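Weekly modeling sync, notes
Attendees: AB, CL, MP (scribe)

Item 1: holo prediction request
CL wants a bound-state model with XIL before deciding which constructs to order. AB pointed out that an apo prediction alone won't tell us much about the pocket. Agreed to run with the ligand included and paste results into these notes for async review.

Input as submitted:
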Amino acid sequence: EDFLMGTALGSRGVNHQYVYPMRQNKKERDVVAREFNCITAENLMKMEYLQPKEGFFNFDQADEFMAFCEESGLAVVGHALVWHSQTPDWLFKDDAGNPVTREVLIERMRNHIHTVVGRYKGRIKYWDVVNEAIDTKMVVDESLPLDEEGNPQKKRVAFYRDSPWLQIIGEDYIELAFRFAHEADPEARLLYNDYSMANRAKVEFAAGMVRGLKAKGVPIHGVGMQAHWQLDYPEIEQLQDSIDILAATGLKVSITELDIGVLPRASEYHGADVNRREELRAELNPYSNSIPMEVLNEQAEKYRAVFEVFRKNSEHIERVTVWGVSDRYTWKANWPVPGRTAYPLLFDRNFQPKPAYYALQKPN
Ligand code: XIL
């Protein structure tokens, strides 16, 4: 492989539950050291764990994680510095519980980034500096005629996510985050990372943002596509278009959190009441005990097809990271539907390679 092949470790992926990484299964760590050359901490470098109270940093788990990575010769990806999720409660508020001012939040961000990036200076190759700053929604498209039923047609539009970062600091929180990270480690490669990047509106917005940052001289070196995918998403053409759009900014693309779940989409589940949820649960969880071979083969084919795209674009892609090792520990267990597991990864619950794993081996 020309690109780095990464995985993620450090959490059992359930309900934000935090698990001390080195107590993880030894079999899992052996697979990591054998099969991958790069790694991301799935949770333990997120702000809520690193700085649970203002000015109180806890690096015990992160240090232990780094030691494992370095012993195993793995390049490390730091994840994530500025995000709206998994942030500590104190971050956006003052002692009285009111929102902090722009100046205070910038200073908190600066201090967090300098402390964390500075601690691992020279040892972390990539940082996900800003995560998920772009959101999308459907709006009426006035330029299109009414549909057959006489309803207006809609289109998806992208915009900066309405997070406390944006509300309190404004759009420039993004460039400030990159500047602070670069000050703390000038050698680290700094990424913008987001999901649904195979979506046209979102990826175009992201590319525009990147161009704007580069034009201002902001130190940004790559864009990450999270890639939490399904058997039917994305289409191969969509994926190729997205890579083209991002690569045209001149930045390298990384696939940062790849997993391909085999379950049907659960969109109806979210809005359903308790009774409907009960009905849906069985329907949405068809493989509760064992997963049929044909489904595993279909998944293998999807993995093969997306990797074919990655290889074809290897001059633009510097890393592909799968979001976990084995179906035993994946965040796609119990989420979004309790009791269902999406079997999204390359190794099964007993750490044996799945058809998807074999599908990725290079033909001789
Ligand atoms: C997920 C972890 O996998 C889970 O263990 C945790 O409970 C929630 O976060 N986008 C990201 C990742 O950038 O940090 C998220 O990871 C998945 C979505």
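Recorded for review: The chain has one domain: 4-132+163-265+293-359.
Action items: CL to compare against the apo run; MP to circulate these notes.
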